[in-house]
Amino acid sequence: MQNKGLIKLFALLFGLVSIYQLSYTFITSKVEKEAEVFAASRISEAEEDYVSKREALEANYLDSIGSNPILGYTNYDEAKKKELNKGLDLKGGINVTLQISVKDILKGLANNTKNPVFNKALADADAASKNSDDTYIELFFEAFDNIKGETKLASPDIFANKGLSDEVNFQMSDDEVKPIIRRKIDESIVSAFEVLRERIDGFGVTQPNIQREGNSGRILVELPGARDIARAQDLLSSTAQLEFWETYKQSNPSFSTFLIQANEKLKEIVEVEQPEQVKEESELDSLLSDVSADSLDLASQVNPLYELLIPANPGTNAMFRAAIKDTATIGSYLRMPEIRRLLPADIQFTKFVWERPSSEEVEVIDLYALKSNREGTPRISGDVVSDARADFDQFSKPAVSMTMNTKGAKEWEKLTGDAYTNQTGIAIVLDNKVYTAPGVSSGPISGGRSEITGNFTVNETKDISNVLRAGKLPASAEIIQSEIVGPSLGQEAIDSGFMSFLIAMAIVLLWMVFYYGKAGAFADIALLLNILLIFGVLTSLNAVLTLPGIAGIVLTIGMSVDANVLIFERIKEELAKGKGKGQAVSDGFGNALSSILDANITTGLTALILFVFGSGPIKGFATTLLIGILTSLFTAIFITRLLVDWYISGKGRSLDFSTSITKGLFKNLNINFLIKRKIAYVVSGILVAIGLFSLFFGPGLQQGVDFVGGRSYTVRFEQQVNPSEIASELNTVFGSGTNVKTYGESNQIKITTPYKVDVEGIEVDVEIQDKLYTSLQKYLPDGISKEDFSVGSDGKSIGILQSVKVGPTIADDIKNNAFLAILGSLAVVFLYILLRFRRWQFSLGAVAAVFHDVLIVLGVFSILGKVMPFNMEIDQAFIAAILTVIGYSLNDTVVVFDRIREIIAERGWKGGENVNSAINSTLGRTLNTSLTTLVVLLAIFTFGGESLRGFMFAMIVGVIVGTYSSVFIATPIMYDALSKKISSGNK
Asked: Which pTM was predicted?
């Protein structure tokens, strides 16, 4: 081997850089452990809410020592930025895909036009988007073209308006307007991306991740380690529309007139049930009892509005009060056109807005009547705010201080002057909720300074000031996909992932020494260096380590042995020919190189396709697999060679590449595999037929929420529970289709429901969690609150540990990407083998074997899907497993084909005799590698955690079937596809 000195230098530098990169991770881990110990020593578990108190103390401790030098070259703050990123499934937190509403942007660009053609095109695009992969803007243009008639996009009441007058004029054709609108939409999505990035930067999590997904209007946000999930969801989805309105006075007689008329009208158009008698008196009951003897003597009647509304507290600027549970009903009444028409002329444009509840315990909130206009626009909007910061009011309570620009300051002075004169209040409204509505007691306020007060926490004032500084989103942002992992589940994933990692590594290291003796020890050194390099590269690339990523590394351990096995087996062949040690080693490495490259390139191609089409954790799996392939090639080809050359160069040293036990294994085999191919065809045909029958006429595959949409929750209880009993109860709450099954231990279940799968918004998530809490309360320990039960509750191992939500649109996209990934990998590999082996028969054999393997894995999942005690749903992880099986199967097949090509080139076909010889010569390598990989997979399956079991089971089946198919399917089909003239050896 040439340039040994250069390779040694490179390996040394590569290793040192990897150690340097990983040192930051060890430093942060050590310091954070010290912070945990410090907090635990100061706050005992007996204290109320000790978990959050400890976290706050830990944060203060880390802040205080953050800039202290460590080891002379870094500090904690710097190390934290450079540590190995842990993904959501290892650290807990939230991962969401936000859909920026292109429809909202279009309406804004068209100045909220009432044009019937424009609005009909929007409605048609809405309908089409449910069954199409095209972007919303293209669907809108298509819908508009279908119905436009004489109407143009450049009509004055569509896009040729005042706002777009610099770019669109009414003389333009539709084809001229479309690119302008596309650009404007792209600019709006970029703006939304920047707004979200600024908000996230102010949220306070380390290593956040935010990415645009092409031109789809989707933005992926990952916040590993985020503990307050509700806060994170609000921060991401709130549009931050800040508005300032003047309120009406409580004493305005027009509202009394309106209320009486509205109540009478509602008696005609709605049905109201008589309320049940309430036994226990709460704050709400007390308030209702105060107004039961109404001045209008309505107690004996059914009164839709009077039974729900409560007079507001005197001295406030609210108009009414109501129970939170009734706000949706009251709001629907007040929005009815026939009720709106009853508003007297002096208040006909009134905007009714509810107060923001100050806490979850509040039962009653205020309803404000705001002075509006025909267009429904506020007196001042949030775009005049130039700065906002968290502060404290005169009573030392958390508040938000705002500064306005020159224009805003003038409007603010006028608005406060009007409120002072009219003795009304100023309602500060954020995202259609009144945060505060103070009066003005000292005349107009100049300077443009104002303050938002209320029952805020410090975190809330930070978030409000953060979103106001960042600005409002240009359109609504709906969470169409989310995954939330509680911190306790993340820690369990780390423990189980590294347990499987250590066990698998120990097995492989021992096996190599057992099978190859001293040479196996050299391969082990190369393997350990390989693992160091993988982690070093992951850290330096700022990649994210996920649980599937750990599985990818563990799989790399098994597969990286493959290269060493190939090399050692070829060296043994050269030694058997009587060559000297140095020559045998040189020829063995050289002869094995072709097979090693072919096998790793085919596996790498499938990993690359997985990286392109996968998302989230699956991308992590593909990333580690790709890095592992590259580093294992380097360590196997160069590092192992350096160690072997160094050893054999010493005097009196012998290296046999085997032990006394394994010396004669797989030697002088002469099995006629081709003569048995018809039996293999029959066996495989029966297995594939059974699988296909099960897929199409039997149980079929269980599709996960990734593919059909819906929500799933992993819930843990203190005691064993009966999933059938819980399923029966939840089906009455959520309707049919809710699936409940044991997930891991008998006290843990996975609940999957399609309930309101088409409805977006955090409100639906909260509603479902409320219903789950109510339905499952009898199975939970006494005293566990709804907050403790919810996802992300700190330091707990009871309740919801993980939740996943996938909207139907994104589910279709995931399914399509999965389909494309499988077809793409097959096409790419077919072409590679065709180019590499120059015969289409080789490609046919390889692809036929892959189809065979995939169909058998699918059949096994269909037959055993409802029998196995672990999750066997078809989701993104399963697709990753299928693609990895494709890569592994091809790896085996290519090694066999490579040896066939080599032997045929030397000796010809000879009627299949040399094909059998090639298979026999690679059988030791095939079984050795498959056994090693299988043991590794079994280690992950056993110790790697519940979320990986289905994934690993697919891999185990795939490896067994892939090993079989490379010998009994791929090679025979390739041989049978050859013409008689070629295979007989006449050509």
From this structure: 0.68
